[in-house]
Amino acid sequence: MMKKIVLLSLISLVIVSCGKEKKEDVEKTEKTVKSDFVVYLDAVYEKNDSTYLNIYDRHGKDMLDSRVYVNVKGSPTVQRVVYKIPTGLEFSNICFSLSTNKEQKTLQIKGISILNNGEAIIGGNGEKTDRFFANGDQLVMNLKTGIHELKHDKTYCPGLAGNEMLKAIIESSQE
Q1: Residues with Cβ < 8 Å from 32, sequence gap 6 or more?
Q2: Would you give the end-to-end CA distance of the chain in angstroms?
Q3: 61-65, 79-83, 157-161 — which one is most confidently predicted on average?
Q4: Which of 20, 22, 88, 119 shows its CA 20 to 30 Å from the CA of 65?
Q5: Residue 7, pLDDT score
């Protein structure tokens, strides 16, 4: 009789424990929110152009299959270029390839904003480029005027890459 009571107690304990773990797993799953990033580049593209956003993983590797391409129609006024990063993608940094049109000699950048799930993690009010650096000598930056000289004579397009401060902000917004 004692063996039956001990056996029944053990079986009850196992059933209750297993049920509790499943309930906790369901709660953890429900609390997980996927990141939904959008990057805005407010700039003057005087000529038709193409631009893309390079996305890097936590090891600094270019996630080639996740690049976001955008065609821009030339205009003398500021336009908002929208880069929609695939929902749920985990990444740690970005780099704008600003221009593929060799006739585009300058680019005026008015602001850069990054939103995650609708909340601004940088910008929101036309923030300048203080969280980015020019990639090599293909982009000659003039921070006072915001008009930057584009040089298309290298292997890569003129671009802006996120600095360590931006990387830290992106990573912390995904935790």
Answers
A1: none
A2: 53
A3: 79-83
A4: 119
A5: 47
Give the pLDDT of residue 30: 45
- CA–CA separation, 52 vs 66, rounded Å? 10
- Measured between alpha carbons, how far is 24 from 26 in angstroms, rounded to an integer? 5
Residue 124 DSSP SS3: coil
The DSSP output letter for 165 is H
Query: Region 51-65: what's the mean pLDDT?
Result: 92
Which residues, 6+ apart, have CB-to-CB distance to 81 below 8 Å?
40, 41, 42, 43, 45, 51, 70, 72
User: C-alpha distances in angstroms, 69 versus 61, 116, 141?
Assistant: 18, 19, 23
Rounded CA-CA distance 54/69 in Å is: 9
